[in-house]
Amino acid sequence: MRRTLPNLLARHWRQLALLLLGVLVPLLLFADLADDVFREGGFAWDRTVLGWYVAHRTPELTALARALAVLGGLRVLPVVTLVSALLLARLGTRAHAWFLIWAVAGATLLNALAKLMFQRPRPAELGAVLAERGFSFPSGHAMSNMAFGYALVLVFWHTRARWPVAVLGLGWALAVGASRNYLGVHYPTDVLAGFAASVAWVAGVYLILGQRWPELRRSPLGKRAVR
Questions:
Q1: Structural domain total, the chain
Q2: Region at 57 (left for phi over 0; alpha for psi -120 to 50; beta for the rest)
Q3: Helix (H, G, I), strand (E, B) or coil at 127
Q4: 24: in domain
Q5: What is the model's pLDDT at position 125?
Q6: pTM of this structure
Q7: Which domain holds residue 200?
């Protein structure tokens, strides 16, 4: 039977929606932010937002932000990612395990390349709590932790745990991103760009690996999937 456009749309609407909302829209957002940073040095509200954080710092919030910096950094997140992937593999779903590894590792590598390309200085002059090395755009913490959180959402989307995982995973990524602004080591546009690039990367990896491993679009928990 000859396939028509309406039939194709009806059959593959989930993949098309993920392509549009998960890849194309975040890429356009990242391109817009990157263009402004490259041409103008960023938005005026970057410093306004950082100033607001400086005015609302407390010892307790600073300690929490420092803890998030460590937990979401290169010393801890790779270990958490590997342990999570091994647990998924033990459930018998290697496709989900490899997807999680590719999502986080790829986002981390892309972040390093993007920083070398843009070479935006960090906002140290605005009262940074920490002395961070390297460039600022896009935020590595925001990018890698959003990759981890968003990948987990996609892994568990076909289970009863979809919404708890979504709240915890995305909430964690947002908290880490906000902590980078609170600590004064990244501009808000660094964090937003990191989120956008990460979402586009993870969604793209999901679509590509889903063609090779169809089980990636099914529950890693077997019969406990949500239909």
A1: 1
A2: beta
A3: coil
A4: no
A5: 66
A6: 0.84
A7: 37-224
25-49 pLDDT, tens per residue? 777 777 778 777 767 667 778 888 8
Instruction: Say what the pLDDT of residue 17 is.
Output: 57
| Per-residue pLDDT reduced to its tens digit, 177-188 | 999 999 989 999
188, part of any domain:
yes
Distance CA 201, CA 23 (A): 7
H or E segment to which residue 217 belongs = none
CATH of the domain at 148: 1.20.144
Query: At what angle are helices 77-90 and 94-118 packed, to 10 degrees?
Result: 160
> If you search the block for the tokens 């989930």, which residue do you land on?
14
In a domain, 61, yes or no: yes
Residue 20 lies in a domain: no
In angstroms, the CA 165 to CA 183 distance is: 27
CB atoms within 10 A of CB 126: 15
Q: Is the pLDDT score of 3 beyond 70? A: no
Residue 1 burial (C-beta neighbours within 10 Å; 0-12, 13-18, 19+): exposed
